[in-house]
Amino acid sequence: MEKEIVKAKSQRHKRVLKKREPKIHENDKRTLFIRGGNTSETVTTALKELYLLKKPNAILFRKRNVARPFEDYTTMEFLTKMNDASLFLFGSHSKKRPHNIVIGRTYDNQVLDMIELGIENYQSLRSVNGSKCSLGTKPCLIFSGSDFETDDELRRVKSVFTDFFRGPVVDNVRLSGLEHLIQFTAFEGKVFVRSYKVALKKSGSRTPRIELDEMGPNMDLLVRRTHLASDDLFKKACRKPKAAKPKKVKNVTTDVFGAKHGRVHMQKQELKNLQLRKVKALKRKLSTDDTKTKVLKK
């Protein structure tokens, strides 16, 4: 199927299309938070609080959108394309699927992966006493449980959670800036999500003592349905352009600590043929025997 070529009708439209063009280094992914036709108080609170944690790269829709992503995902594709977003979180509530959320991501304006989850034992930010981390903080993600490595479905669920919660892409993170930690634990088909605030305490040395204070939101997620991309499409979506890959420098390696080591290659030198400066002090003095032989030769 050939992709439709859209021509710009105005200068503003031209700037919008240029902004949406593929880039070597893509911008930070934007997330849409969408309310379904019917939502419970638990789902509404979860959407608002996750939206606060994802700010500023997030958009919360105030109006309701009647949609069923697993039956017809054209609505999700349309909304993500119009808002230039790659991730979405859709919340709904029904008798058959109570407290339901759908986390999905797109590739080339088409739905790539979708996961339907049921919220159980939700604990909001307000219900947990204590200090909170600042908005826009990049979280540290920890995945516990062997199911994330052995189960093919949960392995892709782990990839979706990483893409959704990882925050902005940065090169370095300073220790004092590590304030938020999210732990995902897989056990018996459920994923337990716990959120903590990292507190740095004095330890008497340069390395501080780390304590975790429960912050919220906390929830138990039940995996209900999944819509996963094929291996070929997933591999194509993860492909990196050659220009984005760092160029390999010959004879330079980097160890586990980030230090660079260089190797210098030198040819074998013949010291006998080494040309030196002709200095009188370095000239060989003739002995008496050498002078006699020299006179005889003459």
Description:
- The protein has 298 residues and is an alpha+beta fold.
- It has helices at 11-19, 41-54, 74-82, 147-150, 152-165, 231-237, 288-297, and strands at 31-35, 58-64, 87-92, 100-107, 110-123, 140-144, 180-187, 190-201, 209-214, 218-227, 252-254, 260-262.
- It has a domain at 26-230: Brix domain (Rossmann fold, 3-Layer(aba) Sandwich), CATH 3.40.50.
- It has 7 helices and 12 strands.
- The strands form 2 sheets. Strands 1, 2, 3, 4, 5, 6, 7, 8, 9 and 10 form a 10-stranded mixed sheet that branches.
- Strand 3 (87-92) and strand 4 (100-107) form a beta hairpin.
- It is elongated, with a radius of gyration of 32 Å.
- The chain starts with 10 loop residues before the first helix and ends with a helix.
Distinctive features:
298 residues; alpha+beta; Rossmann fold; ten-stranded mixed beta sheet; two-stranded antiparallel ribbon; 7 helices; 22% helix; 29% strand; elongated
User: What shape does the CA trace take?
Assistant: elongated
Q: Determine the number of helices (DSSP H or I, runs of at least 4 residues).
A: 7
Order of helices and strands: HEHEHEEEEHHEEEEHEEH
**CATH third-level topology of the domain at 26-230:** Rossmann fold
Helix content: 10-25%
CATH superfamily of the domain at 26-230: Brix domain
Q: How many angstroms does the end-to-end distance come to?
A: 99 Å
CATH class of the domain at 26-230: Alpha Beta
Strand content: 25-35%
CATH architecture of the domain at 26-230: 3-Layer(aba) Sandwich
Major β-sheet annotation: 10 strands, mixed
Q: Structural class per helix/strand content?
A: alpha+beta
Counted beta strands: 12
Low-pLDDT stretches are none
What is the average per-residue confidence, as pLDDT, rounded to a whole number? 84
| Rg over C-alpha atoms, rounded to the nearest angstrom | 32 Å
